[in-house]
Design brief:
Blueprint: E1 2-7, H1 14-23, H2 28-35, E2 43-52, E3 55-64, E4 76-77, E5 90-91, H3 92-100, H4 106-127, E6 135-136, H5 142-157, E7 162-165, E8 168-170, E9 174-177, E10 180-183, H6 187-196, E11 200-202, H7 212-221, E12 222-223, E13 229-238, E14 248-256, E15 273-280, H8 286-297, E16 302-310, E17 314-324, H9 328-338, E18 345-349, E19 355-363, E20 366-375, E21 378-384, H10 386-396, H11 400-409
Parallel strand pairs: 1-7, 4-6, 7-12, 8-11
Antiparallel strand pairs: 1-14, 2-3, 5-6, 9-10, 13-14, 15-17, 15-18, 16-17, 19-20, 20-21
Helix pairs in contact: 1-5, 2-5, 3-4, 4-5, 4-6, 4-7, 6-7, 8-9, 10-11
């Protein structure tokens, strides 16, 4: 499983996140092409190399031509300490329609909308109003739409299946905004952390280290644990603020080492994995799809449903969840709150797993990522990624199996 770890040693913001993905291998032209699928103009993306304390990274810039500012009738969402110049104001309903009505792939739309929903719900709670009435300015401006949609694009293009994050470092002091002086961390950041259960840690500095956009990205996408992984790439995304240390978000990209447990900051390290199970015979079928998404978000390694028969010969579904032992409590909470069950079984398990790694192969239809299955140093199988094969089959008007078999038979592409 390909994963990303958000190493927030100096905090996180929207532009730092996207800059780190670009530094870790996301192609700027591919990002621009995907963002062009939004009905959004009046901006220009540029990057520049930045070196602090001898560490080279990337800073993303979004230059925006401001549009007229609408009347201030509703609460405003802020990205304090981030980019304050555009003056571009949009309601949450307008942003939602913009993303939902775009030509972006469905998976990218869904991820971006989840992040913005996290923001809108937090701002609504802070200001005491429904999320749809929240009126964004800095966060809702063109540059932040680019940051959030760009982060969703990065996950798709880099093939990232799960995201993990270090605790969010929170400074102290105050920040000047259009509404006056507000305390740090910003109220929206604290609301996001409280709603998501995001891990935080104090930092003794009079600066804003985590913006609402950055908090929403981490809280929406990530499990707050340091994963065991086989590291492949590292990217540094620099922010504009100058700090006593390199002011960058560091993103680690690689493969999840499923043989070892993740480390949850502040919790005892517990090895091994568990199997959680529960039987359900009185819940609508459509709820199960949502349940699966919630379980993966909470740290499940695998989720599957099995048709069974219960007492009085009633048809039912057994929900099975494989997870690191330290995610047990979080996953049991999801099962007990999102389903009709009254109890969850837990069994300690041991799994024997083959070695696996990703490679890219060249086919007559284009490059395809492929997962190698190896056992005791011997190649057992090479499985092409479904999404790559499906995309190329559609683009070339050929059968899926044609692309799939070409990828299975191809030799690995030479490394650059």
């Amino acid at each position: 499983m390909r994963i990303a770890y958000l190493d927030c040693f100096s905090g996180i913001s929207g532009d730092m996140t996207l800059g780190a993905f670009l530094d870790a291998g996301l192609a700027l032209d591919a990002l621009r092409d995907h963002l062009a699928l939004l009905d959004l103009d009046g901006y220009r993306l540029t990057t520049e190399p930045v070196s602090q304390s001898g560490i080279l990274g990337t800073r993303l810039r979004v230059d925006v031509a401001p549009r007229p500012t609408p009347p201030r009738r509703h609460a405003h969402a802020h990205d304090h300490g981030h980019r304050h110049d555009p003056g571009d104001h949009r309601h949450w309903s307008e942003i939602r329609a913009l993303i939902d009505g775009s030509r972006l792939p469905a998976a990218i739309k869904a991820t971006a909308l989840r992040i913005f929903t996290t923001l809108a719900e937090a701002e609504g709670a802070v200001h005491g109003m429904p999320p749809d009435e929240v009126h964004f300015h800095e966060v809702g401006a063109v540059d932040s739409i680019v940051d959030i949609v760009g982060a969703a694009v990065a996950l798709e293009l880099l093939g990232i299946e799960r995201v993990f994050s270090a605790p969010l470092p929170l400074g102290h002091g105050f920040v000047d905004t259009r509404h006056g002086r507000l305390p740090l961390p910003p109220p929206a950041v604290l609301e996001i952390a409280a709603r998501s259960g995001a891990a935080t840690r104090p930092v003794d500095i009079d600066k804003e280290l985590v913006t609402p956009t950055g908090a929403a990205i981490a809280a929406t996408l990530a499990t707050f644990a340091q994963p065991p992984m086989r590291l492949e790439r590292v990217g540094y995304g620099y922010g504009a603020t100058v700090l006593p240390w390199p002011n960058a978000l560091r993103i680690w990209l690689g493969e999840l080492d499923e043989a070892a447990p993740a480390v949850v900051p502040g919790a005892p390290v517990a090895g091994g994995e568990v199997l959680l199970e529960t039987n359900i015979d009185d819940m609508p079928g459509e709820v199960f799809g949502y349940l699966m998404d919630r379980l993966f978000e909470a740290g499940a390694l695998d989720v599957y449903f099995t048709p069974i028969s219960m007492k009085k010969n009633r048809p039912a579904t057994m929900v099975s969840v494989i997870a690191p032992a330290e995610r047990r409590a979080a996953l049991e909470t999801v099962l007990l709150t999102e389903t009709t069950t009254f109890g969850v079984r837990c069994l300690a398990i041991a799994r024997t797993k083959s070695d696996r790694r990703h490679e890219t192969v060249l086919t007559p239809f284009g490059p395809v990522r492929r997962k190698r299955k190896e056992w005791q140093g011997r190649l057992i199988d090479a499985v092409p990624e479904y999404e790559d094969c499906a995309r190329l089959a559609r683009a070339h008007g050929v059968a899926f199996r044609t692309v799939y078999e070409a990828a299975r038979q191809a030799s690995p592409a030479p490394e650059a």
